[in-house]
Design goal:
Structural class: alpha/beta
Strand content: 25-35%
Number of strands: 15
Largest sheet: 6 strands, antiparallel
Number of helices: 9
Helix content: 25-40%
Distance between the termini: 25 Å
Radius of gyration: 22 Å
């Protein structure tokens, strides 16, 4: 997958800008802080996920004194060109594929498949379980329509069940129907989450040694409320907690309480790892994710690396570049000087970013 053209209107510090990018190349965005480097890859991420990785406030993405922003892109997807567009105004998103309106977010998310590494991702290891579930869910949503449909249905039925549990007089027959529907959805979701985490760590473990001189082992544990993902096993647990659910007027267990525990040498990484180890773990995790996407979709996603060189020595920087797939389009932001020796036999384009203006410069 490649981003060939990108146009931004009223987005962050890009008033009206258009860019063209070479397929299967590394694009390095250089410049001082607050010049627009991260804004550019934020736009690419937004086209992939329909959300920013920096803020939940859509209005903050729109330039001051403007009512909307628009982003348009042409991507190469399995050898075919596709036109995408997003217009955001008054807290509403208007989506277009091939210039035709798209009504469902699920039909748009992942058409442009992008994987991001940014320094704030390190908080993944310390944040609440909700954030780690979201990390897994967002990637599975892009890879599996079954997962997307099942998760959406589960969330809807969970709301119905919780609403019913809050009523003064509970219809037990209806409650049983909702519970059975939830369990059927959970069986599918749990199996896919468990398999995905296993596959992700298998791929990530292959990359981690390149970022660590020590013989360390990385792993992840899927933490859920049963070990057997069968309908009967889940039914038994729900039956045993029925009175507690009624007493507290909510569904007290389920996949909406799941967590993913990331481990370094068998110890939760949040408890034992240095910042450098966490950064290495996260880089391996993202490259493992890239590999899974390639296996499942038969093409690499676009890789976005924001400030990835920070805290890496020259040897680690060179190793990182060497282990990035050669037929993948990559965007890297940096405030540091770039050494041409890192990019042996790679197609590389370097740009200077200054106050929202981008100019290609020779390496």
């Amino acid at each position: 997958m490649n981003l060939k053209e990108l146009s931004l209107l009223n987005f962050r510090n890009y008033t009206s800008s258009s860019f063209s990018f070479e397929p299967n190349s590394i694009h390095i965005l250089c410049g001082k802080n607050a010049q627009g480097k991260t804004n550019l890859i934020e736009a690419v991420y937004y086209l992939s996920h329909l959300r920013s990785f920096r803020t939940n406030q859509m209005n903050s993405l729109i330039q001051t004194d403007k009512d909307y922003f628009r982003m348009e892109a042409q991507i190469e997807n399995h050898g075919q060109n596709q036109d995408l567009a997003v217009i955001v105004s008054q807290q509403k998103k208007h989506l277009f594929l091939y210039k035709n309106p798209v009504n469902r977010y699920s039909d748009f998310v992942g058409v442009l498949n992008a994987v991001l590494f940014c320094p704030d991702d390190l908080m993944l290891f310390h944040q609440s379980p909700k954030n780690r579930r979201h990390f897994i869910d967002m990637e599975l949503i892009k890879l599996s329509h079954t997962y997307t449909k099942t998760l959406s249905h589960f969330q809807k039925i969970l709301r119905y069940r919780n609403k019913l549990l809050k009523q003064e007089k509970i219809d037990d027959a209806l409650l049983s129907i909702y519970t059975d529907q939830i369990i059927k959805d959970e069986c599918i979701i749990m199996k896919q989450r468990s398999l995905f985490i296993s596959q992700l760590m298998d791929r990530a473990s292959q990359f981690y040694p390149f970022f660590s001189d020590k013989k360390e082992v990385i792993d992840a544990r899927y933490c859920t409320f049963v070990s057997d993902f069968s309908f009967d096993a889940l039914k038994q647990v729900y039956d045993s907690h029925l009175e507690k659910d009624k007493r507290y007027h909510q569904t007290n267990m389920g996949i909406h309480k799941d967590d993913i525990q990331f481990l370094l040498n068998g110890i939760p990484i949040a408890e034992c790892a240095s910042q450098g180890q966490k950064r290495s773990f996260l880089l391996a995790l993202k490259l493992g994710l890239v590999q899974i996407i390639k296996e499942k979709t038969q093409q690499y996603p676009i890789l976005l690396l924001d400030d990835v060189f920070s805290e890496l020595d020259s040897n680690r920087k060179a190793q990182l570049i060497q282990h990035l797939p050669k037929d993948m389009q990559i965007f890297i932001t940096t405030t540091e000087p770039v050494d041409t020796a890192w990019f042996t036999a790679r197609s590389v384009h370097c740009y200077n970013v200054d106050q929202g203006q981008i100019q290609e410069v020779p390496l």
